[in-house]
Amino acid sequence: RPSRRQRQMCIRDRAEVDALHGRGFDRLEVAELSGLIGLHLFFNRLSTFAALPPRAMESFPDQWWVRLARPLMAIRFRRIRRFQPPDPLTEDERVGPFSEIVNALDGHPLARQLRIVIDGAWSSARLSKRAVPLVFAVVARALGCRSAEREARRLLAMTELTEEQIEEVLTHLSSGALDEVERLAVSFARETVWAQPVRIQRRCREIQSQLSREQFLELLGVVALANTICRLGVLGGGCR
User: Fold this and answer.
1) What's the confidence (pLDDT) of residue 128?
2) Any bridge partners for residue 87, and if so which?
3) What one-character DSSP code corresponds to residue 21?
4) Terminal alpha carbon distance of the chain
5) What is each CA distance from 51 to 55, 105, 200, 202, 205, in whole angstroms?
6) What's the whole-model pTM score?
7) 138-158 pLDDT tens trace
8) Per-residue model confidence (pLDDT) at position 81
9) In contact, 205 and 231? CB cutoff 8 Å
10) What angle do CA 5, 9, 10 make, to 5 degrees?
């Protein structure tokens, strides 16, 4: 069951979405705003976990040639800014892991891209078939996103884990049924939900020494994606 803090967070997030609708924002506008926030959250998490140096990106606008080119860039951006008609998902794109959340963005191009990324995470062979839904389940439980946790548990039920073992993992962040990589993924996933940059980067260095390069990069991407999806769960009724 979600903690009191988690329930309060869900209520607050749901209230903020309802407030946008109350101020005249339609469903697609709220979906676009939420999707863009989720997109920035994904890249922020990923760059923080990997400790990518931000100086080059942050100093880019201060380059002398950028300042000179700003008027021309402004003209260009004004020309490409135009209203895009709704871009609905196909029937095939409406199904798959976390379809409730993806379909809440239906009509916006971000929905299709999110479908592709999620399907890619589930088809990867770098982590076990249980590791990916375990990460999502742990992040969903930590955030109190009940719809995402239900979906993660449904996907875990297709593996060899029993309901008792899944609950054990979510309660204690460990289980004798997990292998070493899965135990590492579960504990790391929980640490990323409310992580401080310095602390989580130190943790990433520890984890990197215990995984192959491919496994480490895959785990960073999956955890960043889980943090994004579970926060977007409010669009799909995440508190329910």
Assistant:
1) 92
2) 107
3) H
4) 11
5) 12, 30, 9, 10, 10
6) 0.83
7) 999 999 899 999 999 999 999
8) 60
9) no
10) 120
